[in-house]
């Protein structure tokens, strides 16, 4: 296996470069998935029927908390990858842990938000608007949940084996995934919440 020591650890082998390229292609499919969910939501967002409208159920405070938590986690995962490239194991694990705690906080606020909606009579079956909303937010939330489990698995591997071409590659790919979730959230914040509150 040919190793190029001039490249960052996660890119040093051809296999690792191919895995990163493959993950970019996978993210292309994820973009198509979320684009479809956004298209459905934007088609149905005013079809509230007898149920509550976006302006009636959306509250800015929890959304701002979610946005702060997720965008901060994007910064901390960047710091984790930077620490990894410097060969600093403990800071990498600390920044990973902070990232995952921020992600868990985001998820907690989102779950609380869902319970609030249901308490106000806004359920998946209430209207076309609400079904499209729950599916869009739920799909993003499911991705964050998967990310939390994936991040824990990578932390365990780094703690056990340190920085190898494999653990570095997995860490970098995870960071791409996490940044992608943040970008999707920015679109949700802009085209779901801000649009709904205007």
The tally of helices reads 6
The helix content, as a percent range, equals: over 70%
Shape: elongated
The fraction of residues assigned to DSSP E strands is: under 5%
- How far is the first residue's CA from the last residue's CA? 57 Å
**What is the radius of gyration computed over CA atoms, rounded to a whole number of angstroms?**
19 Å
The helix/strand order is HHHHHH
The averaged pLDDT comes out at 91
The number of strands is: 0
Secondary structure class reads: mainly alpha
Please give the largest β-sheet.
none
Uncertain regions: pLDDT < 50 for 5+ in a row?
none
Could you characterize the architecture of this molecule?
The chain is mostly helical and 198 residues long. The chain is built from six helices and no strands. Helix 1 packs antiparallel against helix 5 (128-161), helix 3 packs antiparallel against helix 4 (89-119) and helix 3 runs antiparallel to helix 6. The mean pLDDT is 91.
Summarize the structure.
The chain has about 200 residues and is mostly helical.
Which key terms come to mind for this protein?
mainly alpha, single chain, 6 helices, 198 residues, 80% helix
Secondary-structure map:
Elements: H1 14-44, H2 54-57, H3 60-85, H4 89-119, H5 128-161, H6 165-197
